[in-house]
Amino acid sequence: MISKRELNRITIAKRILSAARELVLEQESSDFSMPQLAKTANVALVTPYKHFESKAGVLNALLKEIMASNAPERSDETDASENAIDRILDFTAGEVSRLVENEALTRPLISGLVRLNGGTSFNVGAHWVAPWQAEVDVAFKAGMLHGFVRPELIGRSIHTAFFGHALKWVTGEINSGQFAADARYTIVLLLLGVASDLGKPILRHRFSEAEKLLSAALADHSDRNIGAAELPLASGG
User: Fold this and answer.
1) I need a surface site. Which of 136, 169, 186, 201 has the fewest CB within 10 A?
2) Residue 222 pLDDT exceeds 70
3) DSSP string of 201-219?
4) According to the model, what pLDDT value does residue 125 have?
5) What are phi and psi of 195, to 5 degrees?
6) What one-character DSSP code corresponds to residue 54?
7) What does the pLDDT read at residue 124?
8) Cα(59)–Cα(30) distance, integer angstroms
9) Is residue 122 predicted with pLDDT exceeding 50?
10) For residue 196, with 0-12 CB atoms within 10 Å meaning exposed, 13-18 middle and 19 or more buried, which class applies?
11) pLDDT (0 to 100) of residue 110
């Protein structure tokens, strides 16, 4: 049973994150000050620091909350309808979709976090690393990847690649359609390099699909930002 003190802590933390969300949407940026956040949340000036340590902590917690919303539960095993490789690609597709669907929040949050990290992007959205490691571990246990693979390192590599594309999307260098295609292509290529004999046929097929999607995205010279429903995300048959 949760204690009254812990329940109060959770309630206040949620209030602070709700206030941060309100300020980002209102200002269309994450440039609010911590005193401004405390005032909006109707808490003492030191309270956001007590709960999140810093403004970066607030922004990262809000980004994590947004990305967790409507995310499907993931087991540590594959089911009969999905192989371990497609689990990784479908997880990646879901992350792209949630970023795009919530771009009014995710763009300013990521931009702000990069600024607060002095231009270093890896620690931004670091909550992605563990779920990707878990997905890679499933593929490893299913025999889709070489026995020498360390899932934790592949998970970090996927995060680095994914976030690089996400940052290009945030800054407007690429549109959401190319973001989806770039992320899929890069991750398939990365996995293909460590695939086992069992995993190679699936990844070669997925690579061919990803190459076609990326070529189509690059051929689209429109500046329009594709909606989440139009993103080339689904795994091929």
Assistant:
1) 201
2) no
3) HHHHHHHHHHHHHHHHHHH
4) 63
5) -75, 145
6) S
7) 66
8) 8
9) yes
10) middle
11) 92
| Residues 176-204 pLDDT 10s | 999 999 999 999 999 999 999 999 999 99
Kindly tell me if the per-residue pLDDT of 236 is higher than 80: no
Dihedral sign, Cα of residue 122, residue 125, residue 127, residue 132: negative
Contact 166, 98 (CB under 8 A): no
CA-to-CA separations, 101 to 106, 218, 228, in angstroms, rounded: 9, 22, 6
Q: Residue 66 and residue 212: Cα distance in Å, rounded?
A: 31
55 DSSP β-pair partners: none
pTM value? 0.84
User: Per-residue pLDDT averaged across 93-118, rounded?
Assistant: 92
Coil, strand or helix: which one is 195?
Answer: strand
Q: Are 138 and 76 in contact (CB under 8 A)?
A: yes
- Give the ranges where 77-199 is alpha helix by DSSP (H): 84-101, 103-116, 129-141, 151-170, 176-192
Residues 6+ apart with CB under 8 A from 184: 89, 92, 93, 210, 213, 214, 232, 233
- C-alpha–C-alpha distance, residues 51 and 70, integer Å: 24
What are the Cα distances from residue 49, in Å, to 8, 12, 45, 93, 133? 16, 12, 8, 34, 30
CA distance 170 to 181: 15
Rounded CA separation 86/139 (Å):
9
Q: How far is CA 72 from the centre of its chain?
A: 14
